[in-house]
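hey so i finally got around to running the thing on that chain from the lab meeting. sorry it took forever, my laptop kept dying and i had to restart like 3 times. anyway pasting the input first so we r on the same page abt which one it is
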Amino acid sequence: MITLDALPIAGLDEAELTQWIEAAWVRARGGPGAWRFEEVDVARIRLIHTLRHELEIDEAAMPVVLSLLDQLYELRRKAARLNAALADLPAAARAAMLARLETE
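ok and heres what got predicted. didnt touch it at all, straight out
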């Protein structure tokens, strides 16, 4: 777990991060002043920081943007599982499935 002091994000403001945690945009363990984050949480903090400060997504739009990104990432995980399942099929079944997918 990574502490607040060890977050590798330049220009990150603790008060702003606290707002993100309170808005449930970011998961954190512990409490104010003693936050701890997993790697996936650090990646999300980095993403939110970029969205807010480089792309200038405002606070009102952020829940919609994050929800859409979460859906996109979940779809990518499901597609990866589908690809792995297809790879495990016998060659004839895999070819039939891929042919069907190409026609739709």
